[in-house]
Write the structure tokens for this entry.
Amino acid sequence: MVENKKLKFEEAVTRLEEIVQQLEGETVSLEESLKLFEEGMNLTKLCREELTVAESTIKKLSRNSEGELEAIKE
């Protein structure tokens, strides 16, 4: 199992893809499948949190009169 909180978004997605491939295979035991599923759920939560932060940042951006993106001052 990989330490989820230290992963970057892209690394988490890559690990999720690996987990899916393992779970789709026929050589994983039930116990291992449950561990992989739990890890996948934790990675999904991590990705969702990162996407929420990114979405919030994007919402705070607007275009200035020159059409360039700039942060909205609150």
The longest strand covers residues 61-63. Residues 8-71 form a domain with the Helix Hairpins fold (CATH 1.10.287). The chain has a mean pLDDT of 87. The beta strands are 61-63, 69-71.
